[in-house]
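Q: Sequence in, structure out?
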Amino acid sequence: MRLHVGCAMWTLKAWQGRILPHPLPTNERLRHYAGWCDAVEGNTTFYATPTRETVATWADQTGPGFRFVLKLPRTVTHDHRLTDADEPLRAFLHAIEPLGPRAHALWIQLPGSFAPADVPTLARFLRRLPTTHRYAVEVRHPAFFDDPRAVRLLEGVLTDADAEWIPFDTTAFFRSPPTSDAERNAWTKKPRMPLRTHALTERPIVRYLGRDDTVRTVEGWQHWIDVVAGWLREGRSPTVFVHTPDNADAPVLARRFHDEVRARVPGLAPLPEPIPVEPSPVEPSPVEPLTLF
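A: Exactly. Output:
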């Protein structure tokens, strides 16, 4: 019985010297992040497919139980809309091979214009994917949340492919107006997604967006504590990603989420202990030269 938790990235300037040591070589940052969380969203793969050598360093820095949820390239999902995209998809699958089982799921994030009428395209795409990976789909068209027929249609296609539906819960974020620059920026960019808590597979994946105020973030995830605890009791193995607009405390919040679920499910395995962060050395103040008058 495992609950994996993580963030949208494994390094952030706001974490330096507090959550991650500073300075820290690029090829050590993921290793230190993996002491805090045991999963991470692979958002960067949406914009560019990494080299196979780069991916091999990711594997070297993480244990076999670490989970990557890697986003398919936008050339596949947005530019080609899941058709005639064999070459970029093949290159992506080749590049991520060094991760082995760490590649927990390949994340198919579809644009808001991808509507119920496009579901047959998704079905064909899923049927052609190699069975060596698990797949998870995130949709943003309102009909998939408002129209029961569209919900049934998508759930049927995903169930046939043993693929998960990833909810992006932004309800807590949009509950009240923004109060910081980061929140105001996110207010114009994040989708207003309805709440969905139904899992289709044994390995559900949740993306949760809170606020920069920790109290409001924790208040907003309480229903997920209940849902995730229930999934664990059913024998499922969920992964939850905690976001905030500035993400400054995201690893700490992810661990807190895990702790709150573990209080409900005592048999849940604990997270690893973070690698201690040594205080940054203090530079000595320069000595002013003595001036004689």
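The domain at 4-264 is CATH 3.20.20.410 (TIM Barrel).
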